[in-house]
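Human: I would love a firmer grasp of how sequence relates to backbone shape in proteins. Take your time, and here it is.
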Amino acid sequence: MKKFKIFAVCIISFLMLYGCANNKDNVSNTNTNTTNTDNVETQQKSISAIMNLNDKEYMLSIDIPEDLQKYITFETEEVSQTSMALVRFEKEDKSANIGTFTLYNQKDYEDIKTQGLPIGDVVVENKDEGFVLTYTGMQDSVFEKDTEEYNIVMEYANSLEDIFASVKID
């Protein structure tokens, strides 16, 4: 079991670093919301993905700032007993994985955590439902500095606090 968990974490890490997922099932980009903060109106679009865990479906949704909306989507992947929503950047012929939300069973999360393996930052922990949602961001820039793609991805990275505040998982 320990080798299996290490293998699963290695696969997750590989997917996060290289953004090699190709499955676009269970993905939707919906729900445009208008928010008013300090009298500045901004449009936010929710993107969502269905994540499966313990034979149950959960809907993960996050709000994306207006200027990033056309570049950011989710792709879902299932590895072992873990469900992931890869945050994908796409602009013309350039694409990259720029983050990963991973949904763990509470027990598996605790086991991996005690082994000191990379697991990401906790975004939501629901002990009643028995799951933990983590986020792992980019380890390094995915585009050359001073390119338009680099600037867009860095804008996403700088918006993470607001994006995390918008996370909903039902």
